[in-house]
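Justification of resources, computational component.

The compute hours requested in this renewal are based largely on the per-chain cost of generating structure records like the one below. Each record pairs the submitted sequence with a full structure-token output. That output is archived, and it is also reused by downstream analysis tasks.
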Amino acid sequence: GAVTSPIMGGLAAHAVARSAYELLKKHDPAVRLNAIKVDPDKPNPKTGVGFMQWSADSSLLATRADNIPHALWIWDARNLTLLSVVQQISPIKTVRWHPSENKLALCTGGHAIYLW
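The structure output for this chain reads:
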């Protein structure tokens, strides 16, 4: 999709960013998600769900685990199943659902917005 940078000198600068995702089927080999090793001796280790957000119609739930910050888990709340895992190269910083559709935008802190 198109990514628009801030207006500079009265002109809007435009760039086209393209990302490629590999879609895997159930029968494909397993994918490894890199987890951050947590030191259990340190107080308040960051593990488990760090944030979660419901879609507008509450049918989908997006979650991110603190010790696996590169992966976004998308759950189907109606069937109580995992629908998708989106793995990014950089840690996922924020996620927002479209206010009326089951579309999701996520940012990793770079100059791109990724859509699911």
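The first strand starts at residue 2 and ends at 8. The beta strands are 2-8, 11-16, 49-54, 60-65, 68-76, 81-87, 94-97, 104-107, 113-115.
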